[in-house]
Write a structure and sequence with these properties.
This protein has one domain (about 10-60, about 70-305). It is globular and about 50 Å long. It has helices spanning about 10-30, 35-60, 70, 85-110, 115-120, 125-135, 140-160, 165-195, 200-215, 220-225, 230-260, 260-265, 270-280, 290-305. It is mainly α.
Length: about 325
Amino acid sequence: MTPFHFRRIDALLLLMAVIWGTNYPIIKHAFREIDPQAFNAIRMIVASTVFVVIILAVRSRPAGRRAQGSFGSIFYTPSPMSGRDWLGLAALGLVGQCLYQYLFVGGLAATSVSNAALILAFTPVLIAMVSAAIGEERVTTVHWLGALLSLGGIYLVVGRRMSVSGSSLRGDLTMFAAVCCWAIYTMGSRPLMIRHSPVAVSGLSMAIGTAFYLPAVASHIRAVKWGAVSTGTWGAAVYSALFALCVSYTIWYAAVREIGSARTSAYSNVVPIVAMATAVIFLGEPLDLRKVAGTAAVLVGVALTRVRTVNPSPE
């Protein structure tokens, strides 16, 4: 077993966690002014447009300058899209973009941030279970320990503020359904990542998902008095689209390609820690020993999921 070595992909995943962690209070605040599904429609339109522009811009460059090194391959790979690839992208767009976004936003609007954080913390465990069951990745005892330790840390941070009632149960169940969609999307994208770039897979599936999503939420969009939407809410939607969707999705799938679904998903447990730190710094929430211990457990758990098992060389 080799120890965990901090690499560029780990730094990018931590950046992703910071973006997603600070995104929670931003979009929850926007929900006070605008219908959640209509707000999400803005995010998806902006993100899809940016992705498509980037894809077209990269493909318009001279062939020799499209992909340079491992970083360039994040934006472009020369493999053509086959008919089967397009079917895969359509499935990913429907499940991982349309359904996931609809359920995630609906669940977050109907439950507390604490409940949502604890439910989303189950994502790495769910992905690890499915990965092991279908033989996609070898999930060792150390990795299971890391996932469970990280889940326990999340409970220490937000679990005591979690409450289940008739009003929140629907939101909690909706959020869990979103977690299942995200797990399917994460694992389903890996075969496409072998042939295509993270930007292409994320961007095209986002555009297809948006095409499914907009008709589904058309009534929510029509009900909004767009002239009354503040500049701050428009800014929140654009920020969330550019960073929480475009940048973070690209990092997520670059990591899935490099280190696998189970190890990538472990970093999602850093997100509630960032949300907690944001609340402590900007909202003045108290920081106690329980939260510190929970944070330490999450970080140690994530590190354990990144420990690689090396088979001994035959003698």
